[in-house]
Amino acid sequence: SWAALAFPYLVSALVLVLLLEQISYLKKKRFLPGPTFVFPYIGNAVSMVRNPAKFWDVQSAYAKSTPLGISGNYLIGRYMVYIYSSEVSHKIFANVRPDAFHLIGHPFGKKLFGEHNLIYMFGQEHKDLRRSIAPNFTPKALQAYTILQYRVIVEHIASWCSSSAVGNESIPIRIPCRDLNLETSQTVFVGPYLDDEARKRFKEDYNFFNVGLLALPIDLPGFAFRNARLAVGRLVDTLAACAEASEKRMKSGEEEPSCLIDFWMQEMLRLSSEYSYREIGGHLFDFLFASQDASTSSLLWAVTLLDSHPDVLEKVREEVAGLWSPEEDCPISGDRLREMKYTEAVAREVVRIRAPATLVPHVAGDDFAVNEKYVIPKGAIVFPSVYDSSYQGFPEPEKFDPERFMPDRHEDQVYRQNFLAFGAGSHQCVGQKYAINHLKLFIALFATLVDFRRDPTDGCDEIAFVPTIVPKDDCRIFMRPRCTRLFPSL
């Protein structure tokens, strides 16, 4: 029959296609360490999704094994390059432009975030947008946010203590920390413009988004990736409506800004900038994505590291007690928070030793020579590892040592090239002061208001990806309140 005659040719064609795919992969990888052969089309995507920590550890080991600090692999029909070397990572960050590298935030980010997101911008358009964002993170703005953050953090810590008190059991705080951060982000970014129903929908949609981040990019009904993509659209619509409401309020000129979108719309009106509410909504979602899971990771590692370093915990408590008491009838102000230098050093060391967003994916828009020996080919997905960079250069990098960030040592300046948790270059995190402030305030309050201890289990401190890194046990702790005024019912 015709089918029987055609079958050998079809098999031969398939074998040829697969052979050409392997040859293309090996040609791009050249002498770099990495798998010699990869599974057709999907490459090592299954192992990446199934066990991200192991997959990236293997890639890091490959890259570390060569003086170039680079390794190769293959994911969903795309050649990928893993960057261990801080020097090469800086070259990637410094060359984000149309003919070099395109920041993508996620290997399939454009499908999730949309084409016109802040992270995909270049040149003057990108500079203008970042300039308009700058007033969102001035000392005046951060002062306003501190009061909002304080109230949310205290409310959630009280809830956690109540949950732990039931049956005197330990509780995992990853999801509670994520809920704290989501409410903080909503309150700080667009607080007055979201009612309770909108907040509930917001939380549901963000959960869809979170699940889709780690799923295979199957954009079909019923799959997690499709649910995430649709959820992002709804979240952007909600944030766009908040931007419109804020603009109307700021146009009146009768009220001071009370949240981030107010500061931003006030600046947009001053500059007479042209924008659509949905564009603003998309950029707000970018802020939300950047702050949400990264902050959750940092909060969890802060609790973990304070528990395992009681001397650091005691120094934090002493510093906070010298500046603020929970018995006072007032929150921690922005001015007092700025004086907590040691607590800030603790926050920075948490971010260094456990950089929450371990990798910053880019796509090579053209061939790019990282040195005289290797050219990253056009179309490759490139993963600079800011996590690996944090363990390079610093003295005793495996040691949790907040003193390294105190004024007499200032290792974040001495080893600036290796402190890449907030990125570098034109796309360096614009909200890093806000992120450090939030972590710093949480550490100050948690250390002061709560007595806590880990519920240790085998492997509890191993790294899990969700999608940022967290302790494998979701940071399970026992806790009870240390003060009565803020938690009178406990």
Automatic annotation (TrEMBL):
| Gene Ontology CC: one annotated term | membrane
Q: What is its EC number?
A: 1.14.19.41
* Cofactor list: heme
Show the catalytic activity. Answer: 5-dehydroepisterol + NADPH + O2 + H(+) = ergosta-5,7,22,24(28)-tetraen-3beta-ol + NADP(+) + 2 H2O
Tell me the InterPro entries matching this sequence. Answer: Cyt_P450, Cyt_P450_CS, Cyt_P450_E_grp-IV, Cyt_P450_sf
- Report whether Transmembrane shows up as a keyword of the record: yes
User: What protein am I looking at?
Assistant: sterol 22-desaturase
